[in-house]
Design a protein that fits this description.
This protein is an alpha/beta fold. It folds into 2 domains: 50 residues, Vcp-like ATPase, Chain A, domain 2, CATH 3.10.330; 187 residues, Vaccinia Virus protein VP39 (Rossmann fold). The chain has 8 helices and 15 strands. A 7-stranded mixed β-sheet has the order 9-8-7-10-11-15-12, sandwiched between helices. A 4-stranded antiparallel β-sheet has the order 2-1-6-5, with no helix packed on it. The longest helix has 14 residues. One of its GO terms (biological process) is tRNA methylation.
């Protein structure tokens, strides 16, 4: 498994035995390196090894588009109670950040990505995150497989959607989910959010709620403390519903 090597604001994700050149010197990673170890470059600069966590993977995954932000993923996990042993059906894999986070908390994830190239990148990212045994990346459109997935007797604990056709899957949620299972739909646009919200109500799902995600960084200075004026902190909209 790769580790994160950190010096001040520099960080590199490297594998045991790997050699990597920087302007601070060449890092030669020992085969037996462990989190907490210090590795010196040939110029004497010390890097500390850390086990990468979710936010680190978010920064180092190869991206195929704008991934879901950690703040949104936190809301998904918090509102649905996603936990070890849950079966998750996901659509719109993209970079795979959400699927990786869910895999790292112990969920068994089946995720669909339409673009074959994006799916290949997502599989590489799952290997980087160390979750490839529990996260299956399928190439294709979830809506094409809904009938076969509905026939699965076990059902899913959580349905997560980040696709334009999310309402079509939401309408089938009562047949896809176990009793008490959740739907979580992410959309960057109000129109898609409203369509998903209405689809959830039409399907007879309960506890239907929609939130806008806004996060503001705090600035602390000599004159006083206030929210940062850099940007509005908006990422998107999340709709939740329960079977």
């Amino acid at each position: 498994m790769r580790l994160l090597f950190v010096h001040d604001d520099r960080e590199y994700l490297l594998a045991p035995g790997e050699e990597f050149g920087t302007d601070l010197g060449v890092i030669e990673v020992p085969e037996d390196v462990a989190p907490g170890d210090t590795v010196e470059t040939h110029l004497g600069t010390e890097f500390v090894a850390r086990e990468p966590r979710g936010p680190d993977l978010f920064d180092h995954f190869e991206r195929t588009g704008a991934p879901m932000m950690p703040r949104d993923i936190g809301l998904v996990v918090g509102h649905t109670g996603a936990s070890r042993g849950d079966r998750v059906l996901d659509a719109g894999t993209g970079t795979g950040v959400l699927a990786a986070y869910l895999g790292r908390v112990g969920c068994a994830v089946t995720t669909y990505e339409r673009d074959p190239d994006f799916a290949d990148v997502a599989r590489e990212n799952m290997a980087l995150a160390g979750v490839e045994p529990t996260v299956e990346v399928r190439t294709g459109d979830l809506t094409d497989d809904l009938d076969s997935l509905v026939a699965d007797d076990d059902g899913f604990d959580l349905l997560t959607l980040d696709t334009e056709d999310a309402p079509a899957a939401v309408r089938r949620a009562p047949d896809l989910l176990v009793s008490g299972g959740f739907v979580a739909v992410y959309s960057p646009f109000v129109e898609g959010t409203r369509a998903a919200h209405e689809a959830a109500r039409e399907a007879g799902l309960g506890e239907v709620e929609t939130f806008e995600t806004i996060q503001r960084r705090m600035d602390f200075g000599e004159r006083g403390s206030r929210p940062s004026t850099a940007g509005v902190g908006h990422t998107g909209y999340l709709t939740f519903a329960r079977n």
